[in-house]
Amino acid sequence: MQIAKKYFTEGLIQFTILLSLIGVRVDVDSYLNGYYPPLFDVNLGPSSAYTQTPFHSLRDNLDGYSVHPKCPELDYFFATRRLLDEVRTLGSPRFPTQLNTWLVHQVSDSDQPDPGDSSNGNNRIDINLEVGSTASNANDEGKHLQSSSQGERQTTQHLAEQGPCTSGACQLPEEEDDGSSGGEERVSPSQLAHSLSLEQEDLLDGNTSLSDPAAEPHASAVNQHWSHFLALQIADLDDLDSMVSEPLSDLSDPDITGAISQDVSLRDAVVGGPQAYGRVSQRAEARPVTRQQPAPLLLMESTNSSHLDSSSGMTLDLAGPFTSGYNVSRNGSSHDGMGGCLDEAVFDQINMLGLGGMDAIDSHLLNCLESINPRLLEDLDSDSGLSLESGSQGPTSPGTSVVSSSSSSYCEDDRGATGYSSEVDSINSKGIADYSAVWSLEDLSDGVWHDHSYSSQALYHQPSPTSFPHKGIKEEPLSDDEDQGLDSRESSRDEMRARALRIPFTALQIVNMPVDEFLEVLEAHGFSGEQVTLLRDIRRRGKNKLAAQNCRKRKLDAITGLQEEVARLQAQRNRLLREKQLTAKTMGAVGHQIKQLSRDVLSRLRDDSGRPLHPERYTLQCGANGRVSVQPVRRPAVSTTAGSKTDKRKKDKKQ
DNA sequence: TGCTATTGTCATCGC
DNA sequence: GAGCGATGACAATAG
Fold this sequence. Notes:
By secondary structure, the protein is mainly alpha-helical. It has three domains: about 1-35 and about 95-250 and about 575-630, no CATH class; about 70-95 and about 250-385, no CATH class; about 400-525, no CATH class. Helix content is about 60%, strand content about 0%. It has 26 helices and three strands. It has helices at about 1-20, 30-35, 35-45, 70-90, 95-105, 135-140, 150-160, 175-180, 190-205, 220-250, 255-270, 280-285, 295-305, 315-330, 335-350, 360-370, 375-380, 400-410, 420-435, 440-445, 455-460, 490-500, 505-510, 515-525, 530-605, 640-655, and strands spanning about 125, 620, 630. Strands 1-3-2 form a three-stranded antiparallel β-sheet. Helix 1 (about 1-20) packs across helix 9 (about 190-205) and helix 7 runs antiparallel to helix 9 (about 190-205). It is elongated and about 120 Å long. About 40% of the residues are buried. Mean pLDDT is about 45; it is low at about 1-15, about 15-20, about 20-225, about 230-490 and about 640-645. The chain binds a DNA duplex through helix 25.
């Protein structure tokens, strides 16, 4: 019997969902404001706690989208995080209407319709499908909807009662009445099932809520048809499940699967219970429960969604492919190593919205990364451009002798060197011996010509005054290998001019010299004006040459980053287009089924004359409180109005 | 010989 | 105001 009630209740709810999908407005704001903050968070974007993603600090621009050419693993990491951002951007579940409507119908109060409003001037037949209403909804409903009969009032009382109760024998407790005055009473699904069964009993007993007095003689017939329809509805909805899931099964793209799986995670984060995610349950426990019965609602929803009961209705079946996608990622069958770990991390982040556990998330991510690729974390720490708040090590290159010699100097760089170490290595492997007499090894390792660093201070790391041998500088020119940073011909030209003017310094020395040292050299050697000018020109040109190289390098990096950004956006666009097509397919299938259901319902109803209602003349309308009514199709007076306007225009023209 | 990419240099701006 | 980095513009050169 309870199974029958379950199907009965779910069938009603799902039918209302179907109606809402075709445009019947369902006011859910009043419900969502107080009851479902998780859903609200999802719909309105990330919560403040969620936006405090520590990994924002890993990248300082483009919201972490910029790509560092030195660490593709990290780029993948951030790409995964971008998916999370996209989920946030999407903001709402894939089928918000279904979900909202489902939630709406999980909530009801004991609001009693205004008995005084018994007027029913419309040719409308109200079917007592009410599964819940609120005071606000009732007010809104009172503007244009039906009155309530005594039986309906009793039904409403049943809705608010906790346990089984015989019809009309139970009175609403005062405390519940007080609590429901604001229209915020919530009823568990079992209560809904019970109340609906009582409603059915009322219908069968003749307590029809048909607001049209003229329709009362046909109430018994309507009830019979209605009960029969309800029985058929459950089967139809099961058919709809397969119908809807079929187009969903067309989706084989792993990209979409990933996207859907994220939505599933969102869904579970909203309504999921302990079965879905332990963390979600923790959140539910952490959230103070102010209402009497939210937990059973969530529990039931989670159970259904997690167990994928194929016979439990459209909503559950719609979640089927989502959840399957989720399972794919959770099982990690298709993702190895970092991919699977990051996917899991993404789900964790999604499902820990507002938990304030970002530290735990990040540590989890790092643990995953470390377990997969320990070197990645080394890169995170060692790469100055992507440092995880550790000390910048500069453009060091592990495995080379240059690292140890130059790292110290880079550590002292406040601005952080972000260059590349390969060329630093090359110069040290080639020219150390020749420079050692003039420059210390540390100076050479920080050589200007071979470190395409964007940090000027790192490039022009100044040797200590004591390390600069003012009087011991050799005058030997740079070899071609040593001068690879400078254009050999141009350098030789300056060198030749310097030698011609008897300047005892190489161009490299002049350029690398700190300004204080440079000025000291100018004063100490008593150079002539021409020599000083040449020295300053050599120094200026050398520094500008390096600046130009750095500038061009930056341009290339920027172009590369933009190209990758374009590729990412194109992929995102394609994915969104596929999702749009999927949604259109689903909506089409649901709309088709809605039409069939409406046609079936109308064909089983009778009008005042006892004739079956013509499907084209009547339509089913779902009120804000879930009450379904039959209303005649409003024929827009377009023809008459338009005709009159046309006639008027003709008359005007004639005049 | 023309085209393109690379590199150096100058001028300028802003810090 | 000098020094310096960044950058646009131009020129020279190599392939």
